[in-house]
Amino acid sequence: MTTKVGSPNRTPDQAPDQAPDLASNRSHPRTYSRWASLVVLCAGTLMTILDGNIVTVAMPAIQGDLGFSAPGLAWVVNAYLIPFGGLLLLAGRLGDLVGRKRMFTAGLAVFTAASVLCGVATGQSVLIAARALQGVGGAMTSAVVLGMLVSLFPEPRERARAIAVFSAVGAAGGALGTFLGGALTQLLTWHWIFLINLPIGVLAWFAAMRILAPDRGAGLGKGADYPGSALVTGALMLTVYVIVGAGDRDATATALLALLAVALFAGFVLRQARTARPLLRLRLFGSRLLSGANAVQILMIATMYGFQFIGTLYLQRVLGYGELATGTAFLPAPVAIGLLMLGLSARTIARYGPYRVLLAGLVLITAGMALLSRAPADGSYAADVLPPILLLAAGFAAAMPALTGLAMSGTREEDTGLASGLFNTTQVVGGSLGLAVLTTLAAQHTDTLLATGTAPLPATAEGYQLAFRVATVIAAAALILAAAVLRTPRVRDAG
């Protein structure tokens, strides 16, 4: 059982001149070429996902080497997230217009070049500027991947398998980045967390140029609505900026910036309703599955991103782990995610349907966060950290492919790039939201306890416990929302 993803009015064997399609029989006469294309897409995605997480463990080393202040150090992460989150929607639409292969390969080139600049940076300003350029390249690469995947695999069962592989790479890559960040920083220097992207990026670019089928795109003449693009890009960048910097400014400034972001979004929606060639077709949000899946994803990713960041801090600041030990402690997560997604995910979704699998995954995520919220100051990895990690990994391995399939379900061929950009945008918003809210709550609670005379170690541990409890509530909210809005009828495959 799976739900047909892609255009409901289009068959897989239509000619390319009827609708540009990477999965057409002319473009991909042999099955293996489509799976080779999937490997290329996964390689490009892995590089950007690794970079989003690999920096976390290396932050103290970067701070010590380049002399960042505590607030300034946050911009090593924020400088990447703001352009990445702000440009995904525009990059997805431009991919539909100029061709997704062109957008993907251009993004790889920009990201790889920016990684080298990060790796050779010897000053704060150079590193932050290069991180921003990485965000641009990451947005260009990531925005079109799901659209390309949907076109490559029009048949439901193959698509479920492809989404499982893609999701496994993405999910495991996040945890793997923590391990690589610790290993490279401790064994070499922090510069290598960026320089490692050079060989990966070059190989991925050449493979993409050779393996990915060319696609024409609709043409820039179809319109990218540049005034609308400016409004939504500004709104998204400002939203991410408000979220990630909320703890560094007073409440009044945050509220004013948030109101400005809302005003920009309102202007964008108004323009999209009136312009002849909108950037974002508002009818997309008429899809209950697309809108609901994106809302659920914001909450789920907020939980998982918060777990990874706060969990790293717990291991280092409470249990006293070094960089390499911290990275190694997270290794069971990518291993479990990879094994479960590749071995069970597609078959489980085919048997029980994405809705049921998603709910089961969210139950496991909620349970894992609840268990982690009990981690004490005198805790141990085996008793207090590893069991929640395995529960969270199993839950994410079940939930993410199912949620991705539901989000892209029923998306028209001409909208797949835009829907892909939207889905990736909500990932960034969710991650930024989780990071900002949970780290701020943990820090404030710890400061309150320290002011009342609590010893530093217990105060720090209790701050993290509060963050984990809030993350448990967020995960439960994702479960309730998914149960309410994403229910789909069971449809059995003919075969």
UniProtKB/TrEMBL annotation:
Keyword terms, alphabetized: Antibiotic resistance, Cell membrane, Membrane, Transmembrane, Transmembrane helix, Transport
Top-level taxon: Bacteria
Domain Major facilitator superfamily (MFS) profile: 37-490
CDD domains: MFS_MMR_MDR_like (cd17321)
UniProt topology in membrane: Multi-pass membrane protein
Entry's transmembrane regions: 35-62, 68-91, 103-122, 128-150, 162-184, 190-212, 224-245, 251-270, 291-315, 327-345, 357-377, 389-409, 421-443, 463-486
Main location: membrane
Biased composition range(s): Polar residues: 1-12
Presence of keyword Transmembrane: yes
InterPro entries: MFS (IPR011701), MFS_dom (IPR020846), MFS_trans_sf (IPR036259)
Annotated segments matching region Disordered: 1-28
Annotated Pfam families: MFS_1 (PF07690)
Entry's localization field: Cell membrane
Name assigned to this protein: MFS transporter
Organism field: Streptomyces bobili
